[in-house]
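It would be a great kindness if you could assist me with a short task in structural biology. I am sending you one protein, given as its amino acid sequence and as whole-number tokens for its backbone shapes. I would ask you to consider whether the tokens describe a fold that such a sequence might reasonably adopt. The full record is reproduced below for your convenience.
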Amino acid sequence: MKIVSVYLLGVMCLLSAGFFSCSNGDKRAGAKAMRNLYWVEGEWKGRVKGGMMFEKWVMEEDSSMTGFACIIAHSDTVFREYMRIEVRDGDIFYVVNVRHNDGPVAFKFIECTSKGCIFENLEHDYPTRIVYANTIGDMLLARIEGMRGNKPDTSRFFMHRNEMFTE
């Protein structure tokens, strides 16, 4: 009986150690994949129908990124959204907060490399997929995809890095 108790205690310790090392490994994997997005940091701008789109990403101390995007047409802000890319329990999420949603909407990352990242939320109405691609040099392609009614819809936003002039 004593041998069985010691054996069970040993097995439980091994399983616990394996569980905790896997969860730490998952967190490290998420942080490593997050590094593939660091190229997004900075200010971006591009032309859109009827105006200009601006997007800004900032790296935070906790390795997450916060972003803001807006479209300005004829001196009016016609669209704005706040974004965050973060690691939650080892997974990366793109979380967006726009006025027409009841709350933030999270898109889980599907694939991420130094050339781009794909986020997906198949339960969201539109979009269901967000893609950030590092196309050529300091060019960014942001693409949203999904179904509108029974038809597939894709919107592309081409931007280039907005160089800030400092004195």
Observations:
- Residues 34-161 form a domain with the Lipocalin fold (CATH 2.40.128.20).
- Strands lie at 42-48, 51-59, 65-73, 76-88, 91-98, 105-113, 116-120, 129-134, 139-148, 151-161.
